[in-house]
Amino acid sequence: MSANETNRLANIEVSGTHYEVGLQLGRFAADLVHSYTLPSDVWRKVMEYRDDSRVQIMRRMVEERFPTYWEEMRGMADGVGVPFDDMVLWHFRGDVWEMPPEGCTTVQIPGDEPIVAHNEDGSPAQISRCAMAKVQPTGSKGFTSFIYPGTIPGHAFAVSDAGLVATINHIGAKVSGIGLPRTLLGRALLDCDTLDDAIDLLQTSPRSGAYHVTLAQAGDNRIFGVEFTHLNCSVRKIDYPQCHANHLIHQGISDERQDITNSSRARQKRAGDLVEGTANIDPLAVLWDKSDPDLPIHTTDTLATAVFHVGKKSIDWSVYDRIGEPPCYSSHKG
Q1: Residue 166 lies in a domain
Q2: How far is 45 from 221, CA to CA, in rounded Å?
Q3: How many structural domains compose the chain?
Q4: Contact 4, 131 (CB under 8 A)
Q5: C-alpha R_g of the chain
Q6: Pair (283, 314) in one structural domain
Q7: Is 208 helix (H, G, I), strand (E, B) or coil?
Q8: pTM of the model
Q9: Structural domain boundaries enclosing 18
Q10: What's the angle, vertex CA 65, arms to CA 154 and CA 116, rounded to 5?
Q11: What are φ and ψ of residue 204, in 5° steps?
Q12: Per-residue model confidence as pLDDT tens for the chain (334 residues)
């Protein structure tokens, strides 16, 4: 496994114990975490919560409920070369502190063989240590996930060996509280056996922060969109083509206080217009749309676009890191 110096999305493979998985991922990204993440205002702000009483309770919750992911974070800390307590707190960043606005747009197309497609938006400064990571932890389900430097997998997009597709969108909910951090819930989705198990995990777990999750699985023609916050969890079966950006839109939960950026509002409307009443939708045409030069769907922060064809026995999927170019990653998971 080697670091990527080309500003293209790397492909890496890691395996071993959960600690060893975290260690390898940490070593892969260590230089960028030290040069970019640690000096950042976001890191400094999150570290101000070291003594927050919520953090101590949430640490205990994670260690008790998710001991294997606790070990992944321990390995990540050692691989990066930062104190373990700081690494754990970094994984709570969207829960204990109101994060700056983040992007991502998802297209959901139901049918006998559904399609899920997703723009992953983040900081372009991180792209050299982002990657498509094929991960095989000892004694647990394997998966392939988009990863960010310094964070364990599960908070972008992924496909597990159970054929489960999960895509994640940031939600800027104003209310958070004591519960399991959203990043760790995203990681736990990759160990679920079925769609129903994944939904049950999100519905029944005590939640701290907020995400939108799209879920699909090979052999099951259902797609679900899940909006969860500290206070509520809304599950919507997708029965017609829809899109989701970065704010709550489900009836009964969208009244919660939240940050809605101009970009999220514009992407939600434009993507919805493109799929509404349209036959033979091309998800790439939707996610690569730049018809609004000021508030496009595909932004300067779009790091990758993934398209998942959910079949009866397999997931055929591709990841693109350049508009109009061949995919940088393709897989037949079945």
Answers
A1: yes
A2: 43
A3: 2
A4: yes
A5: 18
A6: yes
A7: coil
A8: 0.96
A9: 10-96
A10: 25
A11: -100, -15
A12: 544 556 789 999 999 999 999 999 999 999 999 999 999 999 999 999 999 999 999 999 999 999 999 999 999 999 999 999 999 999 999 999 877 677 899 999 999 999 999 999 999 999 999 999 999 999 999 999 999 999 999 999 999 999 999 999 999 999 999 999 999 999 999 999 999 999 999 999 999 999 999 999 999 999 999 999 999 999 999 999 999 999 999 999 999 999 999 999 999 999 999 999 888 999 999 999 999 999 999 999 999 999 999 999 999 999 999 999 999 999 987 7
Task: Go through the chain and tell me how many residues it has.
Answer: 334
Report residue 296 as tokens. Answer: 């496009």
Q: Which helix (H) or strand (E) holds 13?
A: strand 10-16
* CA 114, 153, 209, 97 torsion-angle sign: negative
Residues 116 and 263 both lie in one domain: yes
246 shares its domain with 302: yes
Give the tokens for residue 193.
């056996």
Say if residues 143 and 135 touch (Cβ distance below 8 Å).
yes
Give the H/E segment covering residue 21.
helix 18-32
Sheet holding 242-244, edge to edge: 242-244, 105-109, 115-121, 302-310, 315-320, 329-333
